[in-house]
Write a structure and sequence with these properties.
Elements: H1 2-20, E1 23-31, E2 42-45, E3 52-54, E4 60-65, E5 70-75, E6 78-84, E7 88-93, E8 103-104, E9 112-113, E10 121-125, H2 126-129, E11 148-152, E12 162-166, E13 179-182, E14 185-187, H3 189-193, E15 200-206, H4 209-212, E16 223-228, E17 235-250, H5 254-257, H6 262-273, H7 275-281, H8 293-297, E18 302-314, E19 318-330, E20 337-352, E21 355-369, H9 416-419, E22 423-440, E23 446-465, E24 476-500, E25 504-529, E26 546-567, E27 571-582, E28 591-602, E29 615-629, E30 640-643, E31 653-657, E32 666-679, E33 683-702, E34 711-734, E35 738-755, E36 762-765, E37 770-773, E38 779-782, E39 785-788, E40 795-798, E41 812-813, H10 818-821, E42 823-828, E43 833-843, E44 846-856, E45 859-862, H11 864-868, E46 913-915, E47 918-929, E48 943-951, E49 955-957, E50 970-971, E51 978-988
Parallel strand pairs: 1-7, 13-16, 45-50
Antiparallel strand pairs: 1-4, 2-3, 2-5, 5-6, 8-9, 10-15, 11-12, 13-14, 15-16, 17-18, 17-51, 18-19, 19-20, 20-21, 21-22, 22-23, 23-24, 24-25, 25-26, 26-27, 27-28, 28-29, 29-32, 30-31, 32-33, 33-34, 34-35, 35-43, 36-37, 37-38, 38-42, 39-40, 40-41, 43-44, 44-47, 45-46, 47-48, 47-49, 48-51
Length: about 1000
Amino acid sequence: MEKRIMTFVACLFLSIGMALAQSRVSGKVTSAEDGQPVIGATVKVVGQKNTGAVTDVDGNFTLDVPTGATLEVSYIGMTTKTVKAASRMEIVLENNSKNIDEVVVIGYGSGRKISSLTGSIATVNSEKLKNAPSASVLDNLQGQVSGLSVLSSSGEAGDNAVSMRLHGVGSLGASSTPLYVIDGIASSSRAIMAMNPNDIKSVTVLKDASATSIYGSRAANGVVYITTKNGGYNSKATITLRSQYGWNTLANKGFYEDMMTGDELYAFYTGLLGEKTMKSLYDDEGYRSNTKWYEIYQQFNTPQTQNDLSIQGGSDRMSYNISASQFHQKGTTIGNFYDRYTFRTNLDARPKTWLRTGVNINLSYDKKQRNSAWGNSEGVSSYTNGGLSYMLNPLYPAYDENGKLLDRFPFGAYSDQYKNRYISDVTSRYGLNGNAYVELEPIKNLKIRSRVGTDLYFSRNNYYKKPSYAPAAGKGTRQRSSAYNYSHTITNTIEYGFNINKVHQFTVLAGQEGIKSSYDTFTAYSNGQVIDALMNLQNGEQSTYKVSEDATESRFLSFFGRVDYNYNNRYFFDVTVRNDACSRFGKDNRNATFWAVGALWKVKSEAFMQPYTWINSLDFKVSYGTQGNAAIGDYTALGLVGKTTSFNDKFAMNYVQAGNPKLTWETQKLLNIGISGRLWNRFDFDLSYYLRKTSDMLMKVPYPYTTGFSSMYNNVGELQNQGVDVKLGVDIVRGKDYFVNFSTTFNYNAMKVTKLFDGRQRWEMPGYLTAYVVGKAPAFYLPLYAGINKENGAPMWYKAGDNPDVTTKKETTEDFNEAALTQNSGKNLYAPVNGGFSIAAGWKGLSLQADFSYVLGKYLYNNDAMFYNDPSVGGYTTNLKKNTADYWTEDNKNAKFPNWKEGYTLQFDDSMLENASFLRLKNLQIGYQLPKSLLAWQNVLSDVKFTATARNLFTVTNYGGIDPEVDGNLVRGIIGNSKQFLFGVELTF
């Protein structure tokens, strides 16, 4: 009976529709990725220009269509779908693979489409990030985001060497590092290094006030938002297995090959010291080798592997992604290695229409050992058995007469290979980064969400030196230390979206967030162990026992809100307000309020733009707002006491830090104006101008010595950065099974100090080779080298003028007085230009991706040159660069160096301040995906892809040191960046 009634009703409606030749259809458009409504999707009747509709905030639409009509449903970043019209339709749109990053989460609340954001953001998707040869995925961002400076300061395996700055340096005293966020939880670059790059869906960089102010106090330097992968609802299970194997080697081996051979060094020193002296020092002792010490103290073509397995998919009510990975890299210095293991589980569920919940967890374990005789991103080195090993005399042999490497070399040092048998310094780290959330929708479009998350790790260092190690003289050493660090976050938000007359769309968000951070470390030490097998701490001599501990804590409490308004998908406005309280400041100055406003005009949507069909899209954005910076020590505002030397064998304390109860937030004001679009369906552009002003900087300023302190932190000074970001892309050719694409990024940043402290117009810091001067960018200050006096071979320097802030090159002198000669070098401390360009191409199953990065106007003080270009530094016994032989003589008056025979030496002047601008091929990847036809005979494998990847393949630079990429102002004895060659296979089941 029921079937008959339904048939009758259906026939009745069909008859009415045929009679009127018109019917009303309705439906809902949702995203296949997360099941959420697609707002603003276009629904058109195929063949009719003037019949269509746009989905509302719930993804719903209603439309009168001819009988038997076909609908075309489209949205930017999603694959257009064509369906037959029906009375009640459920239409699911898939993400377009080319624009899979169109939906982004940039703050709190629901994800939003990039095309509707008033804020300035840049997104790098998984295709750029996966199979990253570097331990940290952040390294792959170099040259990919306009305005974002990314530098890797060393090639040490396991060194968290990536430094990032957005739109210049935001503070002269506090940190300029951006805020890192992983799936909504504040984190760190070290936590990102502990992740598998293939787990990351996208990295989104938030650049302007409209995008970042929702993060308030932590967003002054921008936000780097990491979104990890998850399976899609209603998607089949996919298993992906990836494996890479290759080798790791030094990127700039030529630096060491430019050092003198034994024969060249012998001839050089013979010219300075005479044949008799050289004969007694070397010939009579049998030392006439040509040892390449860099081959002894470093290792090349060391293995690197990465393997990972992921399973993802979803049903109607759950989506999941489960993965595990392994990474191994052996460094270029003896004993250096890094191993990492990860396990990730991302689950999302919607058990009820009004309930969503999920959990994202990343567990990691890594282990590393570094060679402490070499410098890395944390500091320089002065050890000739490490970072300065290029100084070792090649006349000395490294092997005995049987070709065996010596344990101890003729000049007294022990080989690293020998040391590794007796000394170990391994650090293990256990990490947990994750969050869980619950979202309720008790009434339509009202979403209440609560999220808890943590970023924590426990690390343990285990150091020992066995008593059988010859230099230990029978006494071993043991040290053990541990550290526990966590940052717990709880966030609660309520969000409501509604529309008025379907053209006025509003979203209102309010929220609260609390963050609790803690760091605790403990160290124990003893010396005097006498048996290699009994290296426990208690087996050392009791008189050598040492213990120490330290702990810090901080709290943040925040309340925030945001209102988004959209008029007819043409005009977009948003307002953000956030109040933060931070325990790091004085008790009466802990609260601060930050805000931002932003607007977006979709110019192409205007009627007057419709005749210009060659313009596919055109958007204009503007935003202005404030952010705060609290990146200082947890107890910087407090007066502190500490232990000092014992008094009459009694415990004694003294004041170690002056307190400043008035210390408060550093504040930034940021204006951003941008225009973006696409032309001729081929050319993409995104241009923006920014003005960034910092006030009340958190700086350590001089303090009267009569107080017992040399300096203290205060809110002083002002700083300004302004510049332009440019991003361009063009589809050079594109066909059914082939394409060639070119893209480029560019940033120019002009920085200047606009105010200092105590009414000062300048503040010079000789120990740092720099000075801050009001109205100018921070610059290098040091004596200016004037070359060689051609008449006598003496070095000369330019005399500083009456105003040392003005570069003066008029008079010269042969008398070196650093204080009297120091002046503005005319070279800025920070590079004003950075960017990159990429070429992507594909034909059938073949693919090519080449990413270049560059920095212009970058300078480094090459302190290594003092050691490899001055024979007196090593007592006329160490090795030198080949060009050191170009010194003044009567027959060589146009020499590069002074007359060494007269005892002249190099000084700390600008002759070693070198242009470190560079262009680097950061990443090159070639891939081949097997045709589907070759896999048709079986049902297990769905895809097979082979890859070949190279990192840091070549570098173009005039810098004479080991590596121009170091982020700093002085370089000495560091490990240069490495290059990798990896071959991989990716199997999809």
